[in-house]
Amino acid sequence: MTLGKNKTKYVVDAVIIVIVTALTVLYLFKSGVLTAESLSKVTFIGFAVCFLAFIASGAVNAVIDLLIYRTFTGEIGLKRAFLTTVFGHFGSSITPFRSGHFPLKAYYHYKDGVSPDVTVTGFVKCQIIYSAVSVMAYFSIALYLLITGLTADIGGVTVRLWLVVAIGFLFHVAVFVCITVLSFNQRLQRSALKLLCKVIKKLRKNFDAESFFSTCSEKLERFKDQIKIIGKSFYRYLAPAFLYLAYMLLNGSVPYAAYLMSSGGSFYVSEFFTFYILNLASVYIANVIPLPGGTGTSEVLFTVVFAHIIADPLLGATLVLWRISSFYFPIILEFICFLFVALRKKARRDHGVRLKSAEKSFAENTK
User: Fold this and answer.
1) For residues 96 and 62, what is the distance between their CA atoms, to the nearest angstrom?
2) What's the number of domains the chain is made of?
3) Could you say which DSSP state residue 325 is in?
4) Which residues have CB under 8 Å from 202's CB, separation 6+?
5) Does residue 160 lie in a domain region?
6) Is there a domain that residue 170 lies in?
7) Three-state helix/strand/coil letters over 295-330
């Protein structure tokens, strides 16, 4: 749970974000997406509304984690739950494939004195709830879209939106079922992990297969235990489950909020779902491209996916409001928060060392 090994990696990712962002801005200006007219529609009030929507989704996520942790421990309070959410988003934003999400959350817990067992158990519980709710939510949304027949024109092709959501539904079902089966079937688990170790060993020279195998087995065993626990007292998890559904909708509402603030239009449910699903589709693609935080890919995909439902002057404004309020501005604040927490912990640790040294010196001098 130390961050030392990954410092260079995070610095490289930060440099990549800066370079790719600069190149993306240049491309958007040259392609005509960003113009003086579109930027004139970006207002402080519009940014404030979009940023508040983003903050609200983060606050809901923190409350969800708090409720889940309280089912088995009192170590996580509201402050820790909120900072855990901040660190998790920061980790997702500065690493490819969002690979830094859980490591930075674990790092914060480690530095704040949370026991490793509480950290891992909480992560597993949260992931189970998130996966279960995502499956039900995607199924419900896909059914709604199938009934209403909502479509969108992407690149001149008419796309039925329920098909887009169905991809997310099938993905979450496949992942959840796969992990559950591996957790409960020891023989299949050992075979799968051995095969995975062989593949990774061919790709990485210094790969510790034994440690990897042991860690994965332990996590799957814990996953199995927590599924049993949640199943026996599922009513304790209904509140965080419903809140996570609210979080999904609130978090996905930022692009639509950016459009409304740019255009001055009115809210429509069907229009909201169109934006929500199209944003979901672009996020799917951006997440599988190995660039930190989807930098560059997110912006370009947004212009491609939304070009046929947002007029040219508004497209650039909507894009700017969405990305600045939900990505660029938050990672600046999160980085400041990260530095503050890290430096404060270091100062406390140094003070403790000095205090122990002074006490030792005093004891020696009074002998």
Assistant:
1) 23
2) 1
3) I
4) none
5) no
6) no
7) CCHHHHHHHHHHCCCCCHHHHHHHHHHHHHHHHHHH
> What does pTM read for this prediction?
0.88
Q: How many residues does the chain have?
A: 367
Residue 366, pLDDT score:
59
* Mean pLDDT, range 256-281, rounded to an integer: 93
Structure confidence at residue 62 as a pLDDT band (50, 70, 90):
very high
Q: Which domain holds residue 99?
A: 4-132+255-267+289-365
Unique residue bearing structure tokens 């050992």: 190
For 72, other C-beta atoms within 10 Å of its C-beta total 15
Angle at 329 between CA 50 and CA 152, to 5 degrees: 45
Q: Does the pLDDT of residue 361 top 60, yes or no?
A: no
Per-residue pLDDT of 301-313, as tens digits, reads 999 899 888 988 8
| Among 51, 54, 103, 106, CA closest to 80 | 106
Tracing tokens 């889940």 back to the chain, one arrives at: 68
Distance from chain centroid for Cα 254? 15
| Residue 222 falls inside a structural domain | no
- Domain assignment of residue 188, yes or no: no
